[in-house]
TrEMBL record:
Transmembrane segments: 35-60, 80-103, 115-141, 161-183
Keyword Membrane carried by entry: yes
Protein name, entry field: Uncharacterized protein
Keywords assigned: Membrane, Transmembrane, Transmembrane helix
Origin species: Arthrobacter oryzae
Taxonomic superkingdom: Bacteria
Length: 200
């Protein structure tokens, strides 16, 4: 009796693997619709996390009766390093969330969904930069929004250090989005395994 049960379980597992392979063939690949909503999520998380970090910094300064301007003037290098670390954490967490949303929505190919979220960010940045160059700086939306974390770099003045900062930011956001996409996809794999184990 137990051997029949094991054989049935093995057949069921093989059938499920076949179904999953066919589902992936039909519905796998990069899904730019899911990635768009992932990018929207990442953008929203950047705004929320930036606001939270700003409020936290203001609260700490008020509690200690310190003037942020005086602190920055006294130890500019330390403030810049701390700000860079906070910016890196915000970008990573935001794009991890965006990749996770895209991976959950698309179900397959989580790394590709994360990459697609990142590509949406690059595309939007290029379009906004082009619109700002053509229409003038007053139409540069990202420069006029104080809610977004700003890379300490003047537009149009890309030094070697500035390029390094941009490359590091691109790597952080790409890594966060891909890892988030993989995590979102793994949720569906766990659901598939539970369905396999619980079926009669």
């Amino acid at each position: 009796m137990s051997s029949n049960y094991e054989e049935t379980g093995e057949v069921r597992e093989n059938r499920r693997d076949t179904v999953l392979a066919e589902e992936k063939r039909q519905f796998g690949g990069m899904k730019f619709g899911s990635a768009f909503f992932g990018w929207i999520t990442a953008t929203g998380m950047i705004v929320l996390l930036t606001a939270a970090s700003t409020a936290l910094g203001a609260g700490i300064s008020a509690a200690n009766n310190t003037d942020p301007g005086q602190v920055a003037a006294q130890d500019l290098q330390t403030v810049t390093i701390i700000g860079g670390i906070i910016l890196a954490v915000i970008l990573f967490v935001a794009y991890y969330c965006g990749g996770y949303v895209a991976g959950r929505m698309a179900r397959f190919n989580g790394a590709r969904q994360g990459l697609a979220v990142w590509l949406w960010a690059v595309l939007v940045a290029v379009v906004v930069a082009f619109a700002g160059a053509v229409a003038g700086s007053r139409f540069n939306i990202l420069a006029n929004l104080n809610s977004f974390p700003r890379i300490p770099l003047n537009e149009g003045e890309l030094s070697t250090g500035g390029l390094l900062v941009l490359v590091v930011a691109a790597i952080i956001t790409l890594g966060g989005a891909v890892l988030g996409g993989l995590a979102g996809m793994r949720f569906h794999r766990r659901v598939d395994e539970a369905d396999l184990g619980g079926s009669a």
